Structures are given as C-alpha cells and as structure tokens.
Here is the input.
Amino acid sequence: MTGAWRSIAMVTLAVLLVFAVPAAAAQTTSLELVRYGWDNTTVKNSTVVDVSWMKAHLPIMGDGVTHYHLQGPSFVPTDLWNPVESLNLEKINETVKGTSLRDLCDLVGGMRPGDEVQVRAADGFRKRLNYTNVYTPPSRQGPPVLAWWNARNGEAWTDGMRLFFLADDSSNPNHWHVFGNEDMRACLAPAYWHYFSDGSVNYPSAAGLSISRVARIEIFPVPTPLPVPPLTAAPSDLNGDGRYEDVNGNGRKDFADVVALFNGLAWCAQNEPITAFDFNGNNRIDFADVVRLFENL
Ligand SMILES: [Ca+2]
Ligand SMILES: [Ca+2]
Ligand SMILES: [Ca+2]
Ligand SMILES: [Ca+2]
Here is the structure.
C-alpha cells in the first residue's frame, strides 16, 4: 500500500469504528409490574407506572446525601467474602434516590412469605429476591430500592432505574453504607448470591445484584393448593414446612385428611402444586403420600 492509500484506509477504518460503537443505552423510566398466579404463568394482576408517578405517589427513598456502596469481587482468593469491607468498594458508589421495591410490589397485590420477586432489566438480565429480603430486610442489607436519580447525573443517569440496597453502616468498620459480600452471605439465601467467575475462582459480588435499567418486576407466588373436591376449604400447612397435611382445611391433622387425599388423589395429581402433597418427597403426588400422611398422624 502506498502512503496515501494507507492514510485513506486508516481514515476509513477510524470512521467505521466510530460508527460501530453502540450508542449508550438510555435509562428506563417506565416499569411493568406483574403478579402471577400460583402456576407462575397466569397473570393475576398487572400495572404500569413511570418514574413521575412513583415520585408523586410513593415515599422517596434516599436522603440525597448518603453514599451507598455495593461491593464488587475481592479478587483475593483467600478473602472471598472480605467481611471487613476493605476491597473493591468503588465498584458501585452512588448517592441515590428511588422507590422501595416493596411499595412497587404492593401495587399488584404484594408478596407473601415464600414468594419470590424477579427484577428484570430492559435487556432481559434478571435476578430474584425472596419475600424476607424485600419485606423484612436486615438492616445490614437495607431495603431494596429502584433508584431513578443519582447525585452525579440527576434523572439523566443512564443506569437508572437501578436496584440498590440501602444498607446501614452497622457492618462496616468505617461506618460506611456498604452492602458487602459478607452482608450478601449473611442476609440472602445461597440461591440468591451473585458470583463473578475469573478463571477457576468464583468471587462473590454483591454489586452483581445491582441490576441496571430495570423495566419489569415479576412476583412469583409460592404455590398454594386449591380445595380438594368435593371439599370447599383450602388445605393448610400447619407447621410451615411447605407440605399441606391438613388436606381438608379444618385446622388440624386428622384421619379425614387421609381420606380426603385418598379420594381426591387423581385430581390432586393433576391440579395441585406437587410440593404441597408430596409427603414422601419423590416429586409426584401418589398413593405413597397417602400412606405417609397416615403414618404421620
Ligand atoms: Ca456492610
Ligand atoms: Ca406441613
Ligand atoms: Ca384436617
Ligand atoms: Ca409423592
């Protein structure tokens, strides 16, 4: 190539590269809220709200002064959880205002113990939280908030709406508001922890829970059984273990429960959430569950 042609080629390449850079994605300002039925498919309740409505109608979270950090991976294999909160605190460091996830869930019927909520970004990336972390969060976790404002950009913040945890300063030696990796371990069940994989090491990263550009909130109720025909009372779980031993819903364990399950077995196998009546834990509702229910009277 001659010098002139090389120059033209380089300019052409530069122009192509400029246009190849994707435009910065815009923040989300509208939020779709959905509560599913216990089959986790049928939509029971839904609505759409935007940031202006949220600001006008729901309490605003964040004082506009406090910095909230979410800790990234420690990158120290011998200090994965870094309980002293000294590593990678600048991964996410923002002063934010937003709306509490709980208030938003309540717009479509709220969550009950055992339910999960899925926070989904415009690009489909998503994370789930369980009821306790949304409705009764430990103070070192803090309430989950969808932040639509930060101090650097105001509402022009391109990461908004972004999931934050407004952690208190109780677990940080410098009294900073850090939702750290050890906070994630202490407050969330293991299924909800986020990891960043680097080679052969999986580093916990609380920052990975902080989804940007949230566009949709979906509540998945824990399955609850229907009345077993011809009965009309809903079965109840008397000890909170997820199995519904009070099949006839009269508030106690009795032989009538065994009879009800036996008579309604085929219907239950077709229509009930399996976990509710799978007393022997073989992942189906069957005669062995009737036997186990009888044995446990
Ligand atoms: Ca902390
Ligand atoms: Ca039970
Ligand atoms: Ca009963
Ligand atoms: Ca079974």
Notes: Residues 85, 140, 167, 171-172, 178, 180, 183 surround calcium ion (ligand 1) (CB under 6 Å). The longest strand covers residues 43-50. Residues 30-220 form a domain with the Sulfite Oxidase; Chain A, domain 2 fold (CATH 3.90.420). Residues 3-20 form the longest helix (18 residues).
